Amino acid sequence: MNDQEFNYLKRHILSSTGIDIDSYKSVQMRRRLTTLVENTSGANVLGYCKELDKESDVLAKLRNFLTINVTEFFRDEGVFVELKKRILTNIISNTRRLKIWSAGCSNGAEAYTISMILADYPEIVSYSILGTDIDELSLGIARAGGPYTVDLLKNVPASCMNKHFICKDGKYWVKAELKAHTTFKPHNLLSDFFVKDFDMILCRNVTIYFTDEAKEKLNRGFNDSLKANGILFIGSTEFMSRPEAVGFKKLSPCFYQKIPVYAGARA
Ligand SMILES: C[S@@+](CC[C@H](N)C(=O)[O-])C[C@H]1O[C@@H](n2cnc3c(N)ncnc32)[C@H](O)[C@@H]1O
């Protein structure tokens, strides 16, 4: 795909999906899109864009391709041990009413993981978890609380299985009590308005294809959305290169705490 074709394709994708490809790492995205166009329309970008306008399944495949929504419950289970031992104890010492955001929540496995963990703290008076994503199909599963295949549940502690899941025809669904704490909404992290006043934001395994510029803007936005001393929880393969520059103190590779007032804070 030459530069002209790539630029044409990017504009077409933005108008049909609302996803701005310029916020994703260019080399990887171009390589992946080239393969997608080749497999759909034999390397013909114009032909691919026409199919995109006509065929809803081509558009659905593109969305699916751009969003990479692999997830599971208790993904990287070790970090949840750290969350319970170190991070939550600290948050709960400040507030008993928790407001959490799972940003890029995919099918809700991450939001429900947090819900299962918080359900075990009798001292928490109330908690709400907002799950957001750009992928409507995944959000549909999240809102319904399933169906989840058994492979997504391999890290779920035995004590949580009966307590929080129902099995029907070999597929798993979360129980209503767990769902009651969650809300799922469409939201594009690269362009939409951020809600405020969260005690913790999880944004894990979402930004791997974002440019450094897009990541920095996102981290500033997260900082703005957290309460003083709030926590940003990122994926174990991601890292923040200059946390202080965007108002965070690094607590460990996956956990960053908002510095209440920092030089770059928005007025
Ligand atoms: C690999 S999944 C991660 C799910 C979950 N956070 C986890 O770690 O298991 C990445 C999710 O990010 C979402 N995503 C990608 N770009 C996004 C954007 N610009 N705004 C919101 N969500 C986005 C995808 O749709 C996908 O569901």
Describe what this molecule looks like in 3D:
The structure is a single chain. By secondary structure, this protein is of the alpha/beta class. It has 2 domains: 3-67, no CATH class; 77-258, Vaccinia Virus protein VP39 (Rossmann fold), CATH 3.40.50.150. 43% of the residues lie in helices and 19% in strands. The strands form 2 sheets. Strands 5-2-1-6-7-9-8 form a 7-stranded mixed sheet. Strands 3-4 form a two-stranded antiparallel ribbon. Strand 1, helix 6 (109-118) and strand 2 form a beta-alpha-beta unit. Helix 1 packs parallel to helix 3. The radius of gyration is 20 Å and the shape is globular. The N and C termini lie far apart (44 Å). S-adenosylmethionine binds at residues 67-71, 75, 104-106, 110, 133-135, 138, 187-190, 204-206, 235.
Furnish the topology, listing elements before pairings.
Blueprint (H helix, E strand, L loop, with lengths): L2 H15 L8 H16 L3 H10 L1 H12 L9 H18 L2 E7 L5 H10 L7 E8 L2 H9 L13 H7 E4 L2 E4 L1 H4 L2 E5 L11 E6 L8 H14 E9 L13 E5 L2 E4 L9
Parallel strand pairs: 1-2, 1-6, 2-5, 6-7
Antiparallel strand pairs: 3-4, 7-9, 8-9
Helix pairs in contact: 1-3, 3-4
Bound molecules: S-adenosylmethionine (SAM).
Identify the notable features of this structure and list them briefly.
Rossmann fold, 10 helices, seven-stranded mixed β-sheet, 2 domains, 43% helix, two-stranded antiparallel ribbon, globular, binds S-adenosylmethionine, alpha/beta, 267 residues
